[in-house]
């Protein structure tokens, strides 16, 4: 039987230093992490997920022009006082929630040297503890327990844990990809033998793509120190994790948790819009009304493009 490992994971790292170029010009002055997904910025969904899993000490790695994120998780006394005077308790609670979520810290990456470098920047904060990494492009539905399952897998098998999701074979080259083998007696848990960052078409070892959730052993920091820049001249987290797939090295062994739940990809414009629609359709305040409107609109001439054609004819 596998000996139990330390299961307490209280620290999380959220890399958020990217420029958000795919959303320009919207992200010229606003961090992409602050783009609204229905009625909350994307970064708040990620912080709330970390806290639900017990990671209430959160370090966000930012870059220039990202101060809006720090402001969002701080108190806004003038706004709160204005809402108090109006007696608007509902909106007051919503405003205060973002400032009371947990212990959220911010540091700057300094140079845009890749995800691996961003994680390495967290070393002074994390110390010699296992920690979670959550990427803001992947929003995991609040009804899912992916991060909790990953922390539990770390407790059973030690080492590091990565979230995997089956994707169509023609999309594998857009992701990091895992070569895996089953673990006897486990469902949706696999042993990761190798990792490849964005494999060439036809060379992927599987259709299991790495999505943006990790639980990492602190040994990852030494591995990152030894990792040379890879694709795009950046230090890739995948390359460093590859060094830890050998369970014989200190802190080694990588387990994969296969995720089959609801994930919202906000990494590009079209998927961002899909995420907004899907989450709006489930919103507790107006989801039913919104779904009715979508059905009505989808059956309309406007949705079919007929209205546009009539305008063009005139």
From TrEMBL:
Family the UniProt entry places it in: Belongs to the UDPGP type 2 family.
Which keywords are on file for this protein? Nucleotidyltransferase, Transferase
Report whether tRNA processing shows up as a keyword of the record.
Answer: no
Catalysed reaction(s) here are: alpha-D-glucose 1-phosphate + UTP + H(+) = UDP-alpha-D-glucose + diphosphate
**What is the uppermost EC class here?**
transferase
Instruction: Please give the name of this protein.
Output: UTP--glucose-1-phosphate uridylyltransferase
Q: Name one Pfam family in it.
A: NTP_transferase
Cite a single GO MF annotation: UTP:glucose-1-phosphate uridylyltransferase activity
Tell me where in this chain the Nucleotidyl transferase domain is found: 11-277
Look up keyword Metal-binding and say if it applies.
Answer: no
- Source organism superkingdom: Bacteria
Q: What is its EC number?
A: 2.7.7.9
A GO BP entry: UDP-alpha-D-glucose metabolic process
């Amino acid at each position: 039987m596998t000996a139990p490992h330390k299961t307490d994971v209280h620290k999380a790292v959220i890399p958020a230093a990217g420029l958000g170029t795919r959303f320009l010009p919207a992200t010229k002055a606003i961090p992409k992490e602050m783009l609204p997904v229905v009625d909350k910025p994307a970064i708040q969904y990620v912080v709330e997920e970390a806290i639900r899993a017990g990671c209430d000490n959160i370090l966000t790695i930012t870059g220039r022009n990202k101060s809006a994120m720090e402001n969002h998780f701080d108190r806004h006394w003038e706004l709160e006082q204005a809402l108090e005077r109006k007696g608007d308790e509902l909106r007051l609670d919503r405003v205060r929630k973002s400032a009371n979520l947990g212990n959220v810290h911010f540091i700057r990456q300094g140079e845009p040297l890749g995800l691996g470098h961003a994680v390495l920047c967290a070393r002074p904060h994390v110390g010699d503890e296992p920690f979670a990494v959550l990427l803001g492009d992947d929003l995991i539905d609040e009804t899912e327990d992916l991060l909790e399952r990953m922390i539990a897998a770390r407790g059973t098998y030690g080492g590091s844990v990565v979230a995997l999701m089956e994707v169509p074979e023609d999309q594998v080259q857009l992701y990091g990809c895992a070569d895996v083998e089953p673990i006897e007696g486990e469902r949706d848990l696999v042993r990761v033998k190798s990792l490849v960052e964005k494999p060439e078409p036809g060379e992927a070892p599987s259709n299991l793509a790495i999505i943006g959730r990790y639980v990492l052993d602190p040994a990852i920091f030494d591995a990152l120190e030894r990792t040379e820049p890879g694709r795009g001249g950046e230090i890739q987290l995948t390359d460093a994790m590859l060094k830890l797939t050998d369970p014989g090295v200190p802190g080694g062994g990588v387990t994969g948790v296969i995720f089959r739940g609801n994930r919202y990809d906000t990494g590009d414009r079209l998927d961002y819009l899909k995420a907004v629609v899907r989450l709006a359709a489930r919103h507790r305040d107006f989801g039913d009304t919104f779904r009715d409107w979508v059905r009505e609109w989808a059956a309309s001439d406007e949705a079919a493009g007929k209205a546009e054609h009539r305008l063009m004819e005139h």
